UniProtKB/TrEMBL annotation:
Record's keyword annotation contains Cell inner membrane: no
Protein name per its UniProtKB record: subtilisin
InterPro entries with a match to the protein in the record: Peptidase_S8/S53_dom, Peptidase_S8/S53_dom_sf, Peptidase_S8_Asp-AS, Peptidase_S8_subtilisin-like, Peptidase_S8_subtilisin-rel
Domain of life: Eukaryota
SUPFAM superfamilies per UniProt: Subtilisin-like (SSF52743)
Length: 243
């Protein structure tokens, strides 16, 4: 199952190029979500100490399964004879816990932490959560501040089959410009390269990636499949880390 969609977007070829590179730099990708299971066998040693913006400490244990799933898509250990292969193997996953239910203050705090504390080592920020038609200029400003500091921000387009030019979805289609350093990702049916029935779409969408039945890590050391624009965004974040 995993092989088909990886081959559809030429990931094995990308791995071959990377593996032939004499010197590779480990990339840090921040995952703003509901925590990550750092002890998962396919993530152990890849997840580094993160930050909890709610409790102001480093407790980023998972409160839900979403963040662990996104982390696995980005950076599950390749060639370890178990589970799956993440998009990027020379990676450090930096979990940023911003609550079980996203809020604008928590989102802003997540970006503030990354800008103030981690701008020198974080290359990509993955934030797949959104708030639908509600928007926050403060969060928008923080996102743009992060991109100005050199961090690429990857966001999900959303899962309502909306035309975002008519029904905006934050942060994909609010305060956007073609050069703002934000990538908004739609989802396709794996090898079909056709948008999924629930993926949002519009001029605000920058790119699409597989987002249907994506194999990934789950809680308690298990595995599951993920779908919608979140796993599609995680795939793009991993690819961005290769560049």
């Amino acid at each position: 199952m995993q092989k088909a969609y990886l081959e559809a977007i030429s990931i094995p070829e990308a791995w071959s190029i990377l593996d032939s590179t004499a010197k590779r730099t480990t990339v840090t990708i921040a995952v703003i979500d509901d925590g990550v299971e750092a002890t998962h066998p396919d993530l152990e040693g890849t997840v580094i100490k993160g930050y909890n913006v709610i409790d102001k400490n480093d407790d980023t244990r998972p409160r839900g399964r979403h963040g662990t799933g996104m982390a696995g898509i980005v950076g599950a250990i390749r060639n370890n004879m178990i589970g799956l292969a993440g998009i990027l193997d020379s990676v450090r996953i930096l979990p940023i816990f911003d609550g079980e239910v996203p809020s604008f203050p928590a989102m802003a705090d997540a970006f503030t932490y990354l800008i103030n504390k981690r701008k020198d080592d974080v290359k990509v920020i993955l934030m797949t959560e959104g708030s639908g038609s509600s928007s926050s200029q403060f969060v928008t400003d923080k996102i743009l501040e992060a991109t100005a500091a050199g961090m690429l921000v990857v966001v999900a387009a959303g899962n309502h089959h909306f035309d975002l030019d008519i029904t905006p979805d934050f942060p994909c289609s609010f305060g956007r410009s073609p050069t703002d350093g934000v990538l908004c990702v739609a989802a396709t049916y794996g090898t079909k390269m056709q948008l999924t029935d629930d993926s949002n779409f519009a001029l605000a969408v920058d790119i699409a990636a597989p987002g249907n039945e994506i194999v990934t890590t789950d809680l308690r050391g298990k595995y599951a499949t993920a779908k919608h624009t979140s796993p599609a965004a995680a795939i793009v974040a991993g690819i961005a880390g290769m560049l």
